[in-house]
Amino acid sequence: MWHGRTDRIQRPPIAAINALAADLRAEGRDLIDLGQAILGLPPPPAAMEAVRSYLETSEPHGYSPDPGLPEVRDRVAGFLRRHKGLAAAEASELLLTCGANQAFVNALLALTQPGDEIVLFGPYYFDHLFAIELGSCVPVEVGLRHDAGRFVLDWSALEAALTERTRCVVLVSPANPAGMVFRPDEVAKLCELCRRRGLWLISDETYDLLTFPPARHQSPATMGILDEVVVLGSFSKTFALAGWRIGYLYGPAELVEETIKVQDAIVVCAPVPAQLAAAAAVAHADEYCAHAVAELERRRDALLEGLAAVPQLTPIVPDGATFVMAAIDAPVSSVDFATTILREAGVVTVPGSAFGPSGEGYLRLSFGNQRGARLREAAGRLRTALC
Amino acid sequence: MWHGRTDRIQRPPIAAINALAADLRAEGRDLIDLGQAILGLPPPPAAMEAVRSYLETSEPHGYSPDPGLPEVRDRVAGFLRRHKGLAAAEASELLLTCGANQAFVNALLALTQPGDEIVLFGPYYFDHLFAIELGSCVPVEVGLRHDAGRFVLDWSALEAALTERTRCVVLVSPANPAGMVFRPDEVAKLCELCRRRGLWLISDETYDLLTFPPARHQSPATMGILDEVVVLGSFSKTFALAGWRIGYLYGPAELVEETIKVQDAIVVCAPVPAQLAAAAAVAHADEYCAHAVAELERRRDALLEGLAAVPQLTPIVPDGATFVMAAIDAPVSSVDFATTILREAGVVTVPGSAFGPSGEGYLRLSFGNQRGARLREAAGRLRTALC
User: Fold this and answer.
1) Residue A99 with chain B: CB contacts under 8 Å
2) Cβ separation of B5 and A109 shorter than 8 Å?
3) b (16+ CB within 10 A) / e for B272-307
4) Could you give the CA distance from residue B10 to residue B130 in angstroms, rounded to a whole number?
């Protein structure tokens, strides 16, 4: 129709569900939004204070250097050293982006030629699929194995999927949509496999600091097994700065240099006030994340408690992030199920098929943006509508 | 080396020149920066006020809908109706982006398949070339014709360059780097040619309101000749919001819908505070742009006056935007010339070859970010160094 490559892409499913939700809201319906995976807390006050100072400068509000302001890169590198176990992280290995999605696009375009195959573990984060399609690469879905209430890597399926054209493997941990943190022994084995096969590992660590003890995320870049690791990070979730569009890419300095070409073509630089907000936020990582995790844990537990009374949904208990993936016990597609509960219970969720074929039969319910009482109400509404 | 498609791209030339400039500054040199094309004025106070209010909201700082906040799209559509002659512009035809570069990427990926040919008029804006390369399309440079101190479209060269694979023609007016506004009769003829050949016209209008009377920019989308027009706009220059990363794409609603897929994959949405800043800024377009144009005209004239005493540079008088393109009368490449004057005169410029083969033999000197006295000093330094 457009003759464009977007023909191969379905519209973002969150957008489609949100459009229906907007129609219902316009009719006066009270909806509970468990759709978008945001952290419903205000950002750290110091981050807002940093922007306030920027508003008052008399200097022109010009571009920063493509990879980011030098002092912000330094501060974020310090954050990686202290909070992510990347003991030798340097500013030169870091590029600030308009969120982790843009970091993925930068890495992908710098690492691939059209036609290269990119492994996604399913259920996968759909924006990765879109970016791969737009970059004229070939997405290869390798389904995760459901094992004792968790998703785990399926080694024989992975080995079988690799070809001469495979260039990268994408790992999202804590996982979106499944919420689990892959075990360190799984990640180490994946690093070894990548090294053996000459593959790059793109490690999306958007939810890295939002894990529920005893679960803890360890970046493959800290394991000393594989040099060809690109870490994608975000301040959207960890510091509740989603609207500001700020994240980063961390990897070998030579790759970072290469991604600057992509950066310049797409956005020139990350928004300068967002860079300043992030630099101020990371100085408060300990207390802010401790508060956020405690709050998220309460919200997760409220949702899980409520869902225990909904027989059609069997949740996977997440190790981190801001959502619960639940298996649907009903003879309908996940899109039909999500549409039904939106219409009948007024609860916004994301159908699992949005996350690829492996996500069919599941529903993703985000608890990050709702307080406990509202989450219990959502579960109650689901129970009433479904029973 | 990276096996990636970025191998085909030279690092952004502004970045290379800026790196040398940073080294010289570190040595204590006083440099005059005529490199980056920014408007060196503070943004409209109302824009900053809008952000200040956002900082104080207790709501989570979440994403906006992919195309932008509905009320911001409405306000920007009103701005297009009132200030750009797009009498019927609607919010549904508008998508807010992280600057005009990202708008270009969105349009390009929604309109093309890999291998499609895209016409750029040379000297061209280099980030367009990069985006075309990254999108696995084929850039086709059609040189502009130098005619009586202006660049004009070369119709026979254009006709000769079109093939079965040509998909889009990119027009930048006011032009970067040449600074002229293409004449309405040229643009109308280009629209007719696109219609006849079934091509899309991507019209980058970044500097639209920054023109020096009697020059005035008229968008091809107002001419009623061609429906297949995508307008790219920016608030970076017109409202001095470069650091905030905010621009837009305007086109047929069906195309805008299609570009949402690209938007979601790359950035999800434009930064929310930047959207609010832009919505507030456009309400003050008349007075702000009148002030900016008067100031820019003074700066342009100061630079041109100074350059009149530099025999090695013959400037093209710009109709708009924030830079002067000058022909180099010296037996060296534009890169060597720019490097020499950076080292010897401490003046940062951009070599014309950064804008493609047609730019060789020229230098771009931006006057937007320097006051008159400093521009005269820059010209004086050039004279001393070169004579």
Assistant:
1) 267-268
2) yes
3) bbbbbbbbbbbebbeebbeebbebbbebbebbbebb
4) 9
What CATH number belongs to A5-42+287-386? 3.90.1150.10
Q: In which residue are the tokens 């501060």 written?
A: A75
pTM of the entire structure?
Answer: 0.96
Cβ–Cβ of B244/A271 closer than 8 Å?
yes
CATH number assigned to the domain covering A45-283 = 3.40.640.10
Whether residues A18 and B65 touch (CB distance < 8 A) is answered with yes
Query: Can you tell me the ipTM of this complex?
Result: 0.96
What residues of chain B lie within 8 A of the CB of A11, using their CB? 257, 260-261
Considering only CB atoms, B55 lies closest to which of A48, A60, A270, namely A48
- The answer to whether the CB of A374 falls within 8 A of the CB of A61 is no
| Domains in chain B: boundaries | 5-42+287-386, 45-284
Expressed in angstroms, the distance from the first to the final Cα of chain A is 43
Phi then psi for B332, rounded to 5 degrees? Answer: -135, 160
Inter-chain touch B242–A61, beta carbons under 8 Å: yes
Asked if B38 contacts B176 with a C-beta cutoff of 8 angstroms, the reply is no
A244/B61 Cβ within 8 A: yes
Interface with A, mutate which of B34, B266, B275 (most A CBs under 10 A): B266
pLDDT along chain B (387 residues), means of 10: 77 75 94 91 96 92 95 98 97 98 98 96 96 96 92 97 98 96 97 98 98 97 98 96 98 96 96 98 97 97 97 96 97 94 96 94 96 97 94
Fold (CATH) for B45-284: Aspartate Aminotransferase; domain 2 (3.40.640)
Q: Which residues are registered as beta bridge partners of A120? A: A141, A170
